[in-house]
Amino acid sequence: MSSYKKDHVLFCEYYLNIVDLITSQYYFSLIKKGVGMAISNVEYSCNECQRSYVGTIEKVTELMQQKRKCQMCAGGLKFPPAVQENFDEVNPSENFEYGCPKCHRSFTRPLGQIMDLIQANRTGCQICGTELKFPEEAFQQIEKISSKGPQVQRGNVDCPICARKCEYELLDPNDKISCRWCGANFRLPLESSAPLRFSSPEIQSISVEEIDQLTYSISSSDAAGTITRQAFLARGAHGDVEEAEVRDVVSSMVSLLDWHPRSTNNSTFIPLTMEEAVKLVAPVLFQTNLFHLYRREGYQEIVINIDEQSKFDTSMLLVNAVGFVSILATGSGVFQTKKEEPEAPQQTFLRVAIFPYSQGSMTGVALDLSIQIDDNPPQKAPEELFNQLAQSIFEKRSAFLAYYALLALYGPGANGSVVANANKTAIRNRLQAMGGVLAARADDWLPFLRME
Fold first, then answer.
1. Tens digit of pLDDT for each residue in 182-193?
2. CA distance to 46, 210, 446, per residue, from 229 (Å)
3. How far apart are CA 318 and CA 180, in angstroms?
4. Residue 278 and residue 289 in contact, taking contact as beta carbons nearer than 8 Å
């Protein structure tokens, strides 16, 4: 072979070795950064918001060592028992040696990183392709975690409130699924044929026979009462109803069925408990979920910023409130402010006070209205606005009945603004998922379940 050819071959071998070296260093840098690695089977979640996470052993080890919190709600993180036990027994940050038995390259990495390499199936030498020899401790720890660790359940469901697709990763079937669109929290069903759950996993369900007795008083009432009864029976068949839940809903439903408000007496009485009233007054009467709740001595107060509502589809009550506030700009003297000259208000608030109240044999709450301009003292609302409020209460009786029917249909975890936000498609899907008479009459009963 000529000297030229020898030099050419040597140069090519030298060049290829350099390329292999650069390539191997590049890939090892990617491995170190976690690029291109398969996700290991270490799953963990937040104790508070139930958000699920997936991470490498090295990442999980770092989180445990630093006692890090949930990125979403700052709650405590829950790690699989097997990982926690192994963390207590072995330090994944301890350095171990491994290398190639053929080209004799050697490396030193923390045990957690070595485990990640093995789980990602990146076990070949980047220079010669030979299988790397890893320390036995890495395989032992992987075996422990794989044998003890829980399996992650992944999938997607339609949100029962907004009907949009929700993806989930659960360590425990009883963990909550959170809809990123509407914020609803719910759980997977206990049986494949059952609907999604809004109840607690520790539920002590009662029998269908007991539900039948407890709901008898509303069995011959209007459509809302019939739907409530059938919803409880359907959920009870899947072991998803507690006695206290049925008693509370039936009691409230009976009070509403016996209540016949009149638009002529300007009454602001509603037969709701204080707990339910603070959740329902704003979305039902004022058609808004944008409000602040304050607990006062002897009553509670909802404060609605009227200016923030202008870009939303709100009720005529708020529209009229804006009209009454305009009196200020005309200088009529109905509203007294600290300003010497009338100006357009910067912030306008409708304050709705909710008081415990009894009307005859019925107990509930009564509402009082005041309007506040900026930081000036609140002024009692004009009589015309009280008239509008009384008229709205008269017209919204069916909406309050629909709320309790929906509560029976979904479960206690959907109370307040959650079911108030349920859209038409989601409610129809829920009725059909229940099966039986609810599914058969879904389209007929849907109008009675709208809180509008």
1. 989 999 997 878
2. 36, 12, 15
3. 29
4. no
The answer to whether residues 48 and 76 touch, using CB atoms and an 8 Å cutoff, is yes
110 token code pair: 């923390």
Environment class of 214 (CB within 10 Å of its CB; exposed 0-12, middle 13-18, buried 19+): buried
Question: Tokens 């849907």 sit at which residue?
Answer: 446
DSSP one-letter code for 189: -
Number of residues assigned to the chain = 452
Report the distance separating Cα 169 and Cα 52, nearest Å: 6
What are 405-408's contacts with CB under 8 Å, separation 24+? Answer: 405/224, 405/225, 405/227, 405/228, 405/231, 405/253, 405/448, 405/449, 406/449, 406/451, 407/249, 408/227, 408/228, 408/229, 408/231, 408/232, 408/235, 408/249
Residue 293 sits at φ, ψ, to 5 deg, of: -110, 130
User: Residue 269: in which H helix or E strand, if any?
Assistant: strand 269-270
Do residues 262 and 383 lie in contact, with contact meaning Cβ atoms separated by under 8 Å? no
Alpha helices in 258-312 (DSSP H): 274-280, 306-309
DSSP state of 409: H
Question: Could you read off the pLDDT of 401-437 as tens digits, one per residue?
Answer: 999 999 999 999 998 878 888 999 999 999 999 999 9
Question: Closest Cα to residue 34, out of 64, 69, 60?
Answer: 60
The dihedrals phi and psi of 129, each to the nearest 5 degrees, come to 85, -5
70 Cβ contact list (under 8 Å, min separation 6): 46, 48, 49, 51, 76, 77
The DSSP line for 68-123 is: -B-TTT-PBEE--HHHHHHHHHS-TTSEEEEE-TTT--EEEEEHHHHHHHHHTT--
Low-confidence residues of the chain: pLDDT under 70:
1-41, 57-58, 81-91, 145-152, 263-265, 309-345
Tell me how far apart the alpha carbons of residues 48 and 272 are, in angstroms, rounded to a whole number: 30
Please identify which residue in the block is written with the tokens 């020898």.
Answer: 6
Q: What is the mean pLDDT of the chain?
A: 79
- CA dist 175 and 164 (Å) reads 19
* Crossing angle between the packed helical segments 111-119 and 57-66, to the nearest 10 degrees: 150
Distance CA 204, CA 211 (A): 13
372 vs 399: CA distance, rounded Å: 28
